[in-house]
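Sample pair:
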Amino acid sequence: MHTAERLGIDSTPMEGVDAELIGEVFEKEIDGYICDVALVLGYHDDAEDYNAKLPKSRLAKEQVIQVL
């Protein structure tokens, strides 16, 4: 992901992919391996990204980090 970013390519990981379906569709390419995580690569389009200009919300640090 770091290398893609340095090349100007956007990327994001995807969890919870359907490993069985991916195994069927890409049977020849993955050669028996099991896909647990997928990585999406591409370029964003500022004109089409309605979400980019919306205000972001973040949880307070105290809600995320608990000191035991």
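DSSP finds four helices and two strands in the chain.
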